[in-house]
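Running this now, will post back.
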Amino acid sequence: PPTTMESKSAFEQMALFWSSQRSAPELLPFPISPFATLVDQMHQQQSILDSLLVTSTSNSRSHNSTTSAAAYSKNSGYGGTDADEGLEVEVDEDEHLRLNLVQIDLERTKWLLRHILRSRSDLLHKYAQFISSSPAELDKLLPSERQFVLSFWSLKSDHLATSILQFLPDQLGNLENQPGTSERGSSNMVPEPDLDAPVFVRCLDDCGPIRLPDEESATLSRDSIHFLRYRSIRHLVYTRQVVLV
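Update: finished.
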């Protein structure tokens, strides 16, 4: 049977992904399938919007011509009724309503995608060196994100080297981790995501028991909410069985 996430629409899947990405300490694998579906829907909506705009413009011109002709006929005593004018106005109002509904839905989707990319952009800037040096991290990115982070870190490292690092002693001019130091030590020059950060998590499916770092266990049942270390439920975030809130 499909999971709870798979049974949701593309928009709902991307909205839940945004919730997780905002709260996650690291970049999450980008959901290509619902994103592609959503982009296709946006293209279809834009086509509908363009079609409705053309129809609305055509109807408006036709209505203006009809109104002018009706007014002339009425004033000349050749016919033309108020009912005909009311019908034209009703058609215009229906087209206007359809136009607004499609436009609102399109803008809603654009708003969601902008915020998803913005939340990921913050992490790309913050962990550019770590991401650009890790093939596993690069595999999580869209092609445009991958190109951006590699170019960004190349420019930043060149700037640091020419403006600061070349004037420092050799032992202080290395942007990489210093050998023999702990990952969180003061000599760590590569900022990395804190996978032990605490997060709130809501279960979309029954995930069963998980082992916690303190040798305790927790049972994650559907619709339950927990406060756990991110590392403990990272694999469930990747499989989209839980969402961070």
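Confidence is low (pLDDT under 50) at residues 179-183. More later if anyone needs it.
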